[in-house]
Amino acid sequence: MGVPFYDLTRQLKPLREEVLAALGRVWDSGAFALGPEVEQFEAEFAQYFGFPYAVGCASGSDALLLALMSLGVGPGDEVIVPSFTFFATASAVWRLGARPVFADIELESFNVCPDDVGSRVTARTRAIIPVHLFGQCARMDRIMEIARSNGLAVVEDVAQAIGARWNGQVAGSFGEVGCFSFYPTKNLGGAGDGGMMVTGSAVLAERLRLLRCHGMSPRYYHQVVGINSRLDGFQAAVLRIKLRYLAEWEKRRAEKAAVYFALFEENRLADILVLPRPLPGAYHVWNQFVVRVPEGRRDCLREFLKNRGIGTEIYYPLGLHEQKCFASLGYRPEDLPNTFRASREVLALPIFPELTEEEQAFVVGAIAEYYHGQAVLPAHPQRLKAVA
Ligand SMILES: *Cc1c(COP(=O)(O)O)cnc(C)c1O
To answer: Is 347 helix (H, G, I), strand (E, B) or coil?
Structure first.
């Protein structure tokens, strides 16, 4: 027995007929770039979460870029972003000629530390991009307070946290623009790349629509310099179907997390590894289940699990402040101590809606074997009922 880090085919298989029928309709319509299917998905997405406006685009990375463009971020500006995030959060800033200013995280949540964000605000700061990493919101009350008192815009990176909440409010609805990704491994994934930008402002929504189509309105008359970043009809058709399953998948991800907590307790590992306990006020959607492996044993444990056929991943092996491409910004590795430490200790374990309890028991059993020489307890078939 092995356990894949992620097996998308388990989700795809039962949807095959439904999806192929929808793709057939798009094929017959010939509406491939934007078009009615995209408009319907935008409307359904907005309604599902209660966002006033939703604008589709080609990827989550483009969503971040377009959001910053819509706010007029450019050369001379600084944008505060966490260093512990996927590359796209900072590259969007860089590509506009602005300067990414890296903030440190809180180790408990892996999310950006509001106090550290506040300490990095200068006269040049234009915006903050909080990232809701692994499925849990950043401390949005504090971040919005810092933004308001300094006159800064907020662009939320919601790529990993669709449906997450902070004090009951949905991720993406706090800042000027919320940016989503439909990359296949996100909680709502397409059959390729796709993205969405949401906003409460009619003006920003209009600007985002303009910018994603070369700033063109009407046809061949260009008001501003935009980019080509359209969501396509095939992706929208797939995503419209998958949106109807999102609540069920979200529930199952939460059950997997609960099973992991129980298994780690039973196997006397809860005090050896640092488990991802959600903060009070956070509704976590478990895009990833990331533990910290202390004392320099992360890579060794990962190798041990690999030898038993268990897939794991490291999000992320380096903070962005340590990446070669950002060397000219002049950060030293230890400048952001929590990011530095997290990048050396994190290990993402398999979590996806179709993961079985037996597979989870196998994963935790193998970790117990690594630390204790053997699994402390066998898998308990009634566990899911007990923790639900
Ligand atoms: C996936 C991801 C993105 C980029 O999304 P793409 O659709 O792959 O371009 C941006 N930020 C974070 C935190 C992500 O996880």
So the answer is: strand
